[in-house]
Write a structure and sequence with these properties.
alpha/beta, Rossmann fold, elongated, four-stranded antiparallel sheet
C-alpha cells in the first residue's frame, strides 16, 4: 500500500477540529503548523507534496512566507485558502480556493496538482531545466526563472553547442520578426548571464559576434564549424 501524500496545512490550531480537515486526514498525511516560520523549520524533513496556506484563519495572505517556502522547495505545490471576494491573483501560489471550504473542494484542488503529467525536462551538460516549472538546475544550484528567461535558456539548452541566432530568439521568445531594435533581447541576455554567474556557470554562454549566442557544454555534442 502506497503511503498517503503529505500535506502541510498552515493555519490556526482550531483547524484541527474542523470537519473538512478530519475528512482530508482519511486521504492525506496532514500536518498542521501555525506560522510560515514553523513550516520552514520542518519543510525538509516532512517533504510535503502540497502546502496549504489558510489566509482566512491567519488573516494574512502570506505571500512572503509562501515565497520563502517556494524558494526552499521549488517543486512543492502551493494552495491558498482565501475569503470569498478577496483578491486572488498571485504569482506565488499554484492555486487559490475561496471559503467556505469543504473537503471535496480542497481534495479536488490537491488532486489536480499532485496528478499533473510528468514534468518535461531538457538537459545538456551541467544544465537541466524543468520546463513547466521553469526551474533551472546547474552546478547544484536551483534557479526559478521568469517566463522570458526560461524560454531563452530552454532554447540554449535544446541547442547546446550550437549558435542560436538573435533573430531566432526574437521570433521564438517574443513572437516577432522585427529585428530593428534588440535592446530587449540584450537586457534579457544580461539577466541570463547574471543568473548563471550565481551558479558559477556564466562562462558557458558565449557571444558569437554579429550572429547570436552559444551555450557551450561538455564535449560530444554537435558543434558549429
Amino acid at each position: 500500500m502506497e503511503p498517503r501524500p503529505s500535506v502541510l496545512l498552515i493555519g490556526r490550531l482550531t483547524l484541527k477540529g474542523a470537519q473538512w480537515v478530519e475528512a482530508l486526514e482519511k486521504r492525506y498525511a496532514i500536518t498542521i503548523v501555525t506560522s510560515g516560520k514553523s513550516a520552514l523549520d520542518i519543510l525538509s524533513s516532512l517533504a510535503p507534496r502540497v502546502v496549504v496556506w489558510d489566509s482566512v484563519s491567519l488573516r494574512t495572505h502570506g505571500d512572503r512566507s509562501l515565497k520563502q517556502i517556494r524558494d526552499a522547495q521549488p517543486a512543492i505545490k502551493l494552495i491558498r485558502i482565501a475569503q470569498a471576494g478577496a483578491k486572488t491573483a498571485s504569482t506565488v501560489v499554484d492555486g487559490t480556493i475561496t471559503a467556505p471550504i469543504t473537503a471535496r473542494k480542497l481534495t479536488n484542488h490537491i488532486q489536480k496538482l499532485v496528478n499533473l503529467p510528468a514534468e518535461e525536462v531538457v538537459s545538456a551538460g551541467v544544465f537541466s531545466m524543468q520546463v513547466q516549472r521553469r526551474l533551472l538546475t546547474v552546478n547544484g544550484h536551483e534557479l526559478l526563472l521568469n517566463p522570458k528567461l526560461a524560454a531563452l535558456l530552454e532554447m540554449f539548452i535544446r541547442h547546446a553547442n550550437q549558435t542560436v541566432e538573435r533573430a531566432t530568439l526574437m521570433n521564438v521568445v517574443w513572437q516577432t520578426d522585427y529585428i530593428g531594435d534588440m535592446r530587449t533581447l540584450d537586457v534579457h541576455i544580461s539577466k541570463v548571464r547574471e543568473l548563471l554567474k550565481k551558479a558559477d556557470a556564466a562562462q558557458h554562454l558565449r557571444t558569437v559576434r554579429g550572429v547570436g549566442y552559444r551555450l557551450e557544454v561538455e564535449a560530444g555534442k554537435p558543434t558549429d564549424t
